[in-house]
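User: Structure please.
Assistant: Input sequence and predicted structure:
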Amino acid sequence: MIRTAGLLLLALGAAACAPGGDARTAPPSASAVPLASPGFPPTAARARTLLAGLRVARGENGRTYERAKFGDGWSDETDAPGGRNGCDTRDDVLRRDLDEVRLGDRNPCVVLSGVLHDPYTGKELPYSYRRASQIQTDHVVALGAAWRAGAWAWTPGRRLAYANDLDVLLATDKQTNQDKSSRTPDTWRPPRSAYGCEYGRRWTGIKAKYGLTVSAPEKRAVEELLATCG
């Protein structure tokens, strides 16, 4: 993993950090780094099994949550999926989630433009590096929700990894992400009902991966989401 990141940095060399230039696909050294864990998100059947094994408990220490306890912004310096590949976490998310992606030739980590088909609403949202965007990067299980479910007891390094784990992140509509905030599925679900199954699968996969608890109402709500998978 470290060697791969080093190859990417060498490929960038003394190139300017500005993204400009013609679009190119990412070089093998960048694309070789997995942007998700194997088998993530889990299948519906697997998610139901994982959900049944999660510890049910009320959230704790909600008043002590601070965003800074998960690190200062995006960081590539973690061993989470996408980490140590020489690219900013947000750029990794955009490269993975956008269609019609154009990358900078001088810095192939940077997304110059693309289109997001927002999973939460179904909206088609254009993206341009040089313009204000209606796209944000959402922590599916928000940092505040993770904190209440057990992250309050983690080391700073584990919290940093969580905040930058591509399994936890999705590119989504800005306003919808803000409406969601740190709510759990018993109080918020994607407006686009067709995404309910995958949302439940992702939610359960994240909770199981990090050993987070679920509240009783939250568990019932996720069971309902997974029931839509058929």
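Residues 2-227 form one domain.
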